[in-house]
Amino acid sequence: MLKLAFVTIITVFTAFFAIDLKKTEKQPSPVEETAEKNYQTYCAGCHGGKMDAFVDRKWKYGNTKENLYKSIKTGYADGGMPAFEKSFSDKEIKDLADYILKGIKNVDRYTSSEKPLSDTFKTEESTVKLVNVFSGAKVPWGIAFLPDQKMLVTDRSGELYLVNENKQSEKVLGVPEVRASGQGGLMDVVLHPDFAKNNIIYLSYSKPKEGDSKMQTTAILKAVLKGNQLENAKDIFVAEPYSTTRHHYGSRLVFGKDGYLYFSVGERGNEKGNPQNIKNDLGKVHRIKDDGSIPADNPFANKSEGQKTIYSYGHRNPQGMALNPYTGELWSNEHGPRGGDEINIHVKGANYGWPVVSYGINYNGTTFTELTTKPGIEAPIHYWIPSIAPSGMAFVNSKIYKGWEGNLMVGSLRFEYLNRCVIKNKKVVKEELLFKNIGRVREVRMAPDGYLYIGVEGKGVFKIVPVS
Ligand code: HEC
């Protein structure tokens, strides 16, 4: 089973990098093959099936060839790292060090010293320009487009802005108090599907517990937008329990094809207690009706146990969600631990495995679990090692961009670019890194006018306009 998983991983990786390596591709040498085999036999049990997991390691003893050689040879008995001087020859240890060094180079694929020199970018398919349409928000977490060309932009600090097509903005009044700290604050915004008739919007935010300065949770607010004022504001969902941590709020909001509101709630940093526990709301994707009531066919709606709003569980921190406009499926991405960031397609009632199954590794470099797949657990359709820290995402379903139609765009917080994913048969078959070092790309949205917009931390909101 485990062996099969490794083979699968290696196959996936080979296919993945084949795209970039086509020209220089060569068969691994017998030395590399032996090192790889030794790694799988002697190291993978503790360090994970893919030595790429070393990519995101905070090195304690250094990562030069000499450092690695010493670590492997003498081990660190007190730290739990065995010595391998008796198992391997000097040469075998050096080969293993080379093997790890090669693996950690995978991060170079994403890092680049290239700085944007102008607002115009040549991409593989065309040349596009980034036009700034709003610069008022420090962390533009969520964007929603109104029928009258205006847009709503949340700033994580707690402000909601109404922006017109001339870049003029006003603050919306009546926004709830948020705990803008850590990863929390005012987060996503979405319009009711009938907004043109009822002016209803939804906001997700980190809600402080009343009378308690240490506890907060993810909440969803429903309100009517009248001019620049929120009226009849009411929480229609407050995730239980509140937590003292200030991260992993999840918080993406998406209306499904069924007219129900889907949203993510992260596990708030408690992976042991929350994602697999169906009796609380954390580490879940939920589904509710537009008024907060429960759809009768929710997985736990009629069960004696389990939160009735749960749609899927076993999640870590989904910060990107989008409705696939071609299939109607709900897609999401979520942050894995130090690598193993995932793209998932949501199946009603399914378990996405965190922390039972993961491609990532613990921050101390040991694996959470040796399992990358398991019966009864939904596998991601794609994962990133190293972690790109994915955020907002959107499908391009307009003809405005040459060669991009049907692609999935994902913002990277960590490497500060927009990730273009070409999708075939529910697989990411190719990726392109756009706008390298533009800044942390927090939000990605398709507007009704067929243009893509991105929210970049510290810079604001940009419209992507093709120029050739
Ligand atoms: C029994 C579990 C276990 C096995 C098997 C194991 N390691 Fe380790 N390894 C660890 C632990 C735990 C640490 C961290 C030690 C510490 O923090 O002092 C570590 C540390 C290391 C480091 C140093 C990392 C740093 O931060 O500087 C290297 C390199 C390393 N291991 C490589 C290997 C290789 C290569 C193999 C296989 C030949 C291997 N390990 C097998 C548990 C293991």
Describe it.
The chain is of the alpha+beta class. The protein has two domains: 2-109, Cytochrome Bc1 Complex, Chain D, domain 2; 120-466, Neuraminidase (6 Propeller). It is 14% helix and 31% strand. The protein has five helices and 25 strands. The protein has helices spanning 2-21, 30-47, 65-74, 90-104, 195-198; strands spanning 120-122, 127-134, 140-145, 151-155, 160-163, 169-171, 186-191, 200-208, 216-226, 229-238, 253-255, 261-265, 284-288, 310-313, 318-323, 330-334, 341-345, 382-384, 390-395, 408-412, 417-424, 427-434, 441-446, 452-456, 460-466. A five-stranded antiparallel β-sheet has the order 1-2-25-24-23, with no helix packed on it. A hairpin with a 7-residue loop joins strand 8 (200-208) and strand 9. Helix 3 (65-74) packs across helix 4 (90-104). The chain is globular, with a radius of gyration of 23 Å. The termini are far apart. Mean pLDDT is 89; it is low at 1-26. The chain binds heme C (HEC). Residues 42-43, 45-47, 57, 59-62, 68, 71-72, 76, 79-82, 84, 96, 365-366 line the site of heme C (HEC).
